[in-house]
User: Fold malate dehydrogenase from Sphaerosporella brunnea.
Amino acid sequence: MVKAAVLGAAGGIGQPLSLLLKTCSLVHELALYDVVNTPGVAADLSHIATPAVTTGYLPADDGLQKALEGCDIVVIPAGLPRKPGMTRDELFNKNAGIVSALITGVAKWCPKAYVLIISNPVNSTVPIAAEVLKAHKVFDARKLFGVTSLDVVRASTFTAEIVGEKDPRKLTIPVVGGHSGDTIVPLLSQTTPPVSIPEDKVAGLVNRIQFGGDEVVKAKDGAGSATLSMAFAGYRFAEAVLKAHSGETGIVEPTFIYLPGVPGGAEVLKQVGGLEYFAVPVELGPGGAVKATNPLIAASEAEKKLLEVAIAGLKGNIAKGVEFVQASS
Ligand code: NAI
Assistant:
């Protein structure tokens, strides 16, 4: 029996993500938490004829505690999204506090749950979550994931367009680094099955994968950032974790992890100048991350240059998250 919670469930990502989780046969109980509107969202979803029993909670009456108690997986899309012209880093001041408060709840009421962080800036909110869990002495790096799946999804979609592949799902592209602008590094040279991208199209494709989020922010013109594609991507990752939890083997998904705490992470850590957090394809199992793979070794010369830029950017983003928790404790 699996209980899942979505924190920020009434938002642009939270609602469609909750819908997808409600239709997932691996979920038996679905708890929706937000500061507004969850009773309505939960009532609506509860009419869908699937087994997951759906409940909605607000902060009053110990809502967060009730949502989290007994949870096996917690997905967090709570917090402000970007407006045109904003970087993800500019969301830090608002979202750092939100994530840290929600993770304190996780530490108290479901410390063994898988935790999937969607709230931006992911490069900083994942270190925040880790520091809060460490402070409560319940940190298990194998169960904490920064969700970078939207970059992976975009990489497949945009590459398929260029190489004329009609079904983007057939392309697997390791996307590594972080989740913002030039910290996102698609290793196109390791696409499986191999594809031939015209030389003059590579730089544009990389740029589109790195800044694809801006296309959506601009098109929504002030009404937020990616929500539907993010719900799809977030669900894809949550489903991968749940399938692995239920014993399915051979599941590998890129995700932003704490390298020192995941088997295989030390190899990657050496490759990225000692950075403790980095997204790489990770094999998932019943306890979460089973093995961090290291595709960086085989990166092309051009990709190595992109990696240098990503590492430099990530350093500051990670330090900001760690310092936020240390300064407030
Ligand atoms: P939204 O504003 O539509 O929804 C956010 C929800 O969080 C709202 O319902 C709000 O009431 C709720 N919330 C605020 N404070 C809360 C708290 N303390 N506890 C519980 N819920 C709280 O925003 P949207 O578009 O759903 O985006 C959510 C987050 O996801 C943003 O930070 C955004 O930047 C991020 N995002 C991440 C992506 C990724 O690839 N990881 C992609 C797209 C967005």
Observations:
- The longest strand covers residues 277-285.
- The chain has two domains: 3-147, 149-254+261-319.
